[in-house]
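This part of the workshop introduces the protein records we will be handling. Getting from the letters to the C-alpha cells is the skill we practise here. An example says more than a description, so a record of this kind follows:
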Amino acid sequence: MKIPVASALLLFLFLNNSFGQNDDREQILSQRELSNHALRAFDEELNATFSTDDALITTGAGTLISGKKELMKYIQESSGARMYWIRTPDEVLVNSKTRLAWETGTWKGYVEGLDEPVVGGKYSAQWTKASGTWLIQSQLFVTLPNEE
C-alpha cells in the first residue's frame, strides 16, 4: 500500500514534533533535577544558572522577586535556619513554536539537617528556550497545608 506524499510528510512532521517535544521535556526535567541538586547543596550561584536574568519568582509566602540577582540576595539575607527546596514536576508541556514550556508540580522545603519537609505546596514554572537552552523565566510557589 502506497502512502500519499502529503500524508507521509504530515506523519513525519507530527512524529518529528512529538519526538522534539519529548526531547525538550527531558531537557527541562534534567534542568529541574540539576537545579534541585544545586539547592540541596546550598549553591545559589549554580542554581541561578538555571534562570533567565530577569526571572520572576513569587515565593510560597507571596513575596515577588524580580531577577536572579534579587533572588540570590533574598536567599542570602534570609534569617533563621538554612533551607532548601525540592520541586517535583507532575507535568511539563512544551510549545515548540514559541519555545516556551509549562511545568507544574509540588514543592517541599527542608531545614538543613532534617529529613522531613517543614513546608510545601504547589508550584508552576514557565521555561523559555530563547537562548538555545531551557531556562526558567517565571516561577510561582504557593504554600499549602500538608495533606499527608
Observations:
- Residues 15-19 have pLDDT under 50 and may be disordered.
- Residues 5-40 form the longest helix (36 residues).
